[in-house]
Each structure stands twice: as structure tokens, then as C-alpha cells.
Write a structure and sequence with these properties.
Blueprint lengths: L2 H13 L3 E5 L2 E5 L7 H9 L1 H9 L9 E4 L2 H12 L7 E9 L4 H14 L5 E6 L2 E6 L9 E3 L5 H16 L11 E9 L2 E9 L5 H20 L20 H11 L3 H13 L23 E8 L1 H13 L4 H17 L3 E8 L16 E8 L10 H12 L6 H10 L11 E5 L13 E7 L8 E7 L4 E8 L5 H18 L16
Parallel strand pairs: 7-8, 11-13, 13-15
Antiparallel strand pairs: 1-2, 3-6, 4-9, 4-14, 5-6, 8-9, 10-16, 11-12, 15-16
Length: 513
């Protein structure tokens, strides 16, 4: 058996959560029900000697507690991590300012208990030939180093703290080394702390971050009530047991996308995206470089209360959502910038279609393509109804992973542009992340780690009476003034959209490349 074939066999075993145990010249295994087929048993018997040698050469490695195939999302993130020049751009980082009598020992034990509950926080991604596998390692204490700046002069603490946060958040992960979680504390005063939480996107998404903070709050509270060396248990924290693990989800996704559902998904997307333009010729400020640095920047803007109220009123009249009104204006902007009557943008969608997926700290988010069609006029307008049809159709078929969809198109001789998606839209409907520790006030701030994976990304954050917008753009391609003009034009398009039936207008200029 060749080394490559042996690696492939190990990948198959890991994907099925089969664990091997050498015992002298014997080889034993533990496997879930139905995991071992007759063919797999025969391959084990035939290549027992090679497997024993392989296992003997790795006796110093920690045992694998459980394993399963990487999900399509993880495969895509794995490829982006290794292809990008700024792999730290996939770090999900939170800066949490804490004020009060923080119990550092309790926080450390709560973090260890959190990883015991949520296996993705102690997993690694390992490539076995063609098989990318998620491997969950045994529970181990989570490092929580403390850096003390309280002895510095007050005027120097802010700069020193910002530098510390930037360095710690911007350090890339090695995806083959668990855990893909980093925590650290900065002490700024007697009862003033900065808690830094960094997780790789390959094991978490926005929903999962909310779950993480809720679980951590419950476990910290339990650690205060149950002092000692041991981490608190789920029962002590009143946390219900999890029905599935993320390796289970990887196997479920394989089964889910190998039966009647995948035929229905392919039928929908083949029809919806037939002849759709998967490139987006935005007007560039500088020639496109041969290789991007992936550096990004952000223009922040606000949809003011009066306009936000009018957008809500328009959504009610059209029996749709605020997001689809905002989406239609984004489509109109991109059509005019590109000179195209239609564009395809990617939209982040939760994709937690099963109840047992909801309490997991794990990545489920999918980028669904939205084909936004205008009337094809000289000044194209994407109607709200057209945006709504595109979004709700995609939402009903959100379980078709973008990576698989692009593979399908390539197999059909219709490959998407390598840069797709060039434009992304995100609506953050969830409440702002919160860490509510007993007697400790906390403010959670999302940290943007440099690393732009699209050319332009519109993030919309609804607040009580307004909508905050973040227009992220690739610094390799666009100047800040250009992005600012697009943000202004976008708000102008919204204002004109709410004065229906008059078509919205905005000055955006023709594309140059």
C-alpha cells in the first residue's frame, strides 16, 4: 500500500469517527454503529502492518476524542486561509472591556468548561489526501495569560493596550494545531480589564459567537458558586446537554446532500442562476494587481431615523422586510457602478435549519448568491419585489453550500469568476453580543482584523431608531474617497426608493475597467 493510499484510508476512518488502538501486533478499533463496512474492515486487515507503523510513529501526539468530515464551509475557509496573504483576516476577534471585581481563576475555569461543552473550540483541521477532517482533542486547561499595564502612567495605558490588542488579535492560527481559540487578559487598573477572545472563523460564525458568550456567562456564574480547581459542569451552569456535535453535523451534511434534497437544490439554483453574470466589473481607482494583499478598510455611515422609518413603512406596504428594501438599493448601486442590468451578490445567511444545530458554537453560515435584476433602463433600478423574490427563494434553498454550488457550475462548463463573490451583503439581525458576568460590567466590541476576502462588503446593523452601515472595501482597488461616495450614493438611493413610484437616482459614474 502506498503512503498516499494509507493516508486516504486514515482520512476515511477519521471521517467516520473510527479510532484505532494498537496493542502489540494487534490493531483494535472503536467505531459508531454502521460506521464499519465490510470493505473498510477488509482494508484494515489488509493494511494492518502499515497502520501499526504509522500509529507507532505518532505516539507522542494527543489522542483524538472524536472526528468527522469537514463541512463545506470549513473546506472553503481552509482553502482561503492557505491561499490568502493575510490568514489572520479570518480571525473572529472580540475586545471585551470589563469593569468590576473579576475573578480571573473563575474565568479560566469557565473557559475550560466551555471547551469541554463545545468541542469545536478544541478541534483542529487535518488534511488526509483528499479528505479534510475535523479532529476534536481531549479537554485541556485553556491558557489565560494576564498582562498588567496598571503600573504604567495613565496616559500610556491606552496606547500600550491598543498595541497589545492589535498584536494578539492579528496573530494567525495554524489550522492543524488545536485549539483554534486564543484568550488573554489585560489589566488596566484595580478593577479594569480587557478580555480578548479570538477564534478562527473555521470553527465559529456570528450566531455561534452569541452562543459562546451566553455559555461562558453561565459557566462563569457556576464557577463562582462552585470554587475549587475543577471546571464547572453543564449541570451546575443549568446548561442542557447538546444533542449533536459538529463532527456529527459534517456527517449529516454529507447524507443530507446525497439524496433527494440535493436534486431539489440543484434544480432551483440551476434555474435561478442560468446565464447569470458571476463577474462584477466595478470601476477601479488603480489597476488590478496580479496578487492582492487582501487589505481592507471601512467607511461607516448611518441611515438616519427619518429615513429608517420610511424604509420600514415601504417594507410594510410591500409585505416584505427592511432587509429586502436595503438589498434592492444595494443592487441598484452595483448595477449602475458596473453598467450591468443585473448583478449577483453573496448574502450571509444563518443556515441553521435544524433545531439541534442552534446551541452549537460552530460555523453554519452560508453565502447564498442573490441574482438582482433591474429593468435594464439607462439608470437601472432593482425593484424591491425583485430583491425580495431573490432573497426568499435563496433562503428556502440556503442549505446548498456555496462551495458545492460553484463546483456544480464548473462541472457544467459554467465556472464562476475566480474572484466571486466580489460583492457581499450582511444584515446583522441579532442583538449586539453581550457578556453579562455577575457584578462585572462588560462591553463587547467587534475587532476588524485586516483581511478582505471580497472587493466590497455592505454590513447593515439595525438599531432602535436607525440603521448603521459599514461599507468595507479592498484597499488594493479603491480609494477611501470612492468608497465614501458609494456610501453617500447608497443612502441617496434609499431616500429615492421610499418616494415610490419614482425611480431612485444616484450619481455613481460609469465603470472604467
Amino acid at each position: 500500500m502506498t503512503v498516499d493510499a494509507l493516508t486516504d484510508l486514515l482520512g476515511t476512518l477519521r471521517a467516520r469517527d473510527v479510532r484505532l488502538h494498537p496493542d502489540g501486533d494487534s490493531l483494535h478499533y472503536d467505531a459508531p454503529e454502521h460506521a464499519m463496512t465490510g470493505d473498510l474492515l477488509e482494508r484494515l486487515r489488509t493494511h494492518k502492518a502499515g497502520l501499526l507503523r504509522r500509529l507507532a510513529a505518532h505516539t507522542d501526539e494527543p489522542p483524538v476524542e472524536s472526528s468527522g468530515p469537514a463541512t463545506y464551509f470549513q473546506r472553503r475557509m481552509h482553502a482561503q486561509h492557505h491561499a490568502g496573504r493575510l490568514p489572520a483576516g479570518l480571525n473572529v476577534a472580540q475586545r471585551i472591556e470589563l469593569t468590576g471585581p473579576l475573578d480571573v481563576d473563575a474565568l479560566g475555569r469557565a473557559l475550560t468548561a466551555l471547551t469541554a461543552r463545545q468541542g469545536t473550540l478544541r478541534c483542529r483541521l487535518v488534511q488526509y489526501g483528499e479528505e479534510l477532517v475535523q479532529e476534536v482533542l481531549p479537554v485541556a486547561p485553556v491558557p489565560l495569560p494576564v498582562t498588567d499595564l496598571s503600573t504604567l502612567p495613565p496616559g500610556e495605558r491606552g496606547t500600550a493596550g491598543d498595541d497589545w490588542v492589535r498584536r494578539t488579535a492579528g496573530e494567525p492560527f495554524d489550522l492543524a494545531v488545536a485549539p483554534l481559540l486564543r484568550t488573554a487578559l489585560l489589566r488596566r487598573g484595580p478593577q479594569e480589564w480587557t478580555f480578548l477572545l479570538v477564534v478562527h472563523h473555521i470553527v465559529i460564525d456570528g450566531w455561534g459567537l452569541d452562543v459562546l458568550l451566553r455559555d461562558l456567562t453561565a459557566l462563569y456564574t457556576a464557577a463562582l458558586r462552585h470554587p475549587g480547581d475543577a471546571p464547572p459542569t453543564d449541570e451546575q451552569a443549568s446548561l442542557p446537554p447538546l444533542a449533536v456535535t459538529y463532527p456529527d453535523v459534517g456527517r449529516w451534511q454529507r447524507d443530507h446532500l446525497s439524496g433527494p434534497r440535493i436534486r431539489a437544490l440543484r434544480a432551483y439554483w440551476d434555474e435561478e442562476l442560468a446565464d447569470a453574470p458571476f463577474d462584477l466589473p466595478l470601476p477601479l481607482d488603480v489597476p488590478r494587481p496580479e496578487r492582492h494583499t487582501n487589505r481592507g478598510a471601512t467607511v461607516e455611515f448611518t441611515v438616519p431615523p427619518d429615513l429608517s422609518a420610511e424604509v420600514e413603512a415601504l417594507a410594510r406596504r410591500r409585505d416584505t422586510t427592511v432587509f429586502t428594501v436595503m438589498l434592492s438599493a444595494y443592487g441598484t448601486l452595483l448595477c449602475r457602478l458596473s453598467g450591468r442590468p443585473e448583478v449577483v451578490v453573496a448574502c450571509n445567511i444563518a443556515n441553521r435549519i435544524r433545531l439541534e444545530h442552534e446551541p452549537l458554537v460552530a460555523p453554519f453560515t452560508n453565502n447564498v448568491p442573490l441574482r438582482l435584476r433591474s429593468g435594464g433602463d439607462e439608470e437601472p433600478v432593482v425593484p424591491v419585489d425583485a430583491a425580495a423574490r431573490a432573497f426568499f427563494g435563496a433562503a428556502a434553498h440556503q442549505d446548498h453550500p456555496l462551495a458545492l454550488l460553484l463546483e456544480d457550475r464548473a462541472a457544467q462548463g459554467r465556472p464562476a469568476d475566480d474572484r466571486f463573490p466580489q460583492a457581499v451583503v450582511v444584515m446583522q439581525n441579532q442583538a449586539a453580543p453581550a457578556l453579562d458576568l455577575p457584578d462585572v460590567a462588560g462591553e463587547v466590541h467587534d475587532l476588524t482584523v485586516d483581511g478582505m476576502r471580497s472587493e466590497v462588503c455592505l454590513v447593515l446593523v439595525p438599531e432602535t431608531d436607525r440603521i448603521r452601515g459599514h461599507l468595507r472595501y479592498a484597499r488594493d482597488l479603491f480609494d477611501a474617497a470612492t468608497a465614501e461616495s458609494w456610501a453617500t450614493a447608497y443612502v441617496g438611493l434609499l431616500r429615492e426608493a421610499v418616494t415610490e413610484p419614482r425611480a431612485p437616482r444616484a450619481t455613481t459614474g460609469p465603470p472604467t475597467t
